Amino acid sequence: MKAMLINRCGGVDVFEEATLTRPHPGPNEVRIRVMATSVNPIDCKIRAGAVPLSPAFPALLQGDVAGIVDAVGDGVTSFAAGDAVFGLIGGLRSHQGALAEYVLADARLLARKPDALDMVEAAALPVVALTAWEGLIERARVSPGQGVLVQGGAGGVGHIAVQIARAAGCRVTATVSGKEKGRLARRLGADEVVYYRDEPVASYVARLTGGRGFDVVFDSVGGASLDASFAAAAPGAQVVAIAARSTHDLSPLHGKGLTLSVVFSLSPFVHGGSLARVGERLARIAQLADAGLLRPHIDPHTFSLTQVADAHRLVESGGAEGKVVVRVGV
Amino acid sequence: MKAMLINRCGGVDVFEEATLTRPHPGPNEVRIRVMATSVNPIDCKIRAGAVPLSPAFPALLQGDVAGIVDAVGDGVTSFAAGDAVFGLIGGLRSHQGALAEYVLADARLLARKPDALDMVEAAALPVVALTAWEGLIERARVSPGQGVLVQGGAGGVGHIAVQIARAAGCRVTATVSGKEKGRLARRLGADEVVYYRDEPVASYVARLTGGRGFDVVFDSVGGASLDASFAAAAPGAQVVAIAARSTHDLSPLHGKGLTLSVVFSLSPFVHGGSLARVGERLARIAQLADAGLLRPHIDPHTFSLTQVADAHRLVESGGAEGKVVVRVGV
Question: Which of A157, A292, B114, B255 has a Cα-to-Cα distance from B61 of 20 to 30 A?
Answer without folding.
Answer: B114
